[in-house]
Amino acid sequence: MKTKINRYDIALIAAIVLINVVILFSGGRKAVHADEKIAYVYSHEELVGEYVMSDDYETEFTVGDEKSGYNTVHIENGEVWIHDASCPDKICLSQGKISRDGEIIVCLPNQFMIQIEDKSEEENDVDFMAQ
To answer: Which of 66, 76, 82, 131 is 20 to 30 Å from 115 at the Cα level?
Structure first.
């Protein structure tokens, strides 16, 4: 049995090819904005700072005080870590350096948290299921 290809079949094939081309080229832009990682710093459940995580940015700052507890944060070469803290157990110091999307450092006694978000992944993520 011969099957004819009609104009709707051609339109469907063209639409699928066009969608694939758009997905291919929009995914290529991700490398251009690769340095859009942000470190969000929270103290007592309140956002106290946003810092761009780039290779050429370096800073060190302290959040809190001696009375309520403090954490000293260091950012360098696209990584962030807690350099010093007033908490009794110092577990937050041993959590090491973080640099990838979704990673966090938490200091429970001082109610302090650092979270990394990659803005370039948010803008360019394609979420679908193929069958």
So the answer is: 66
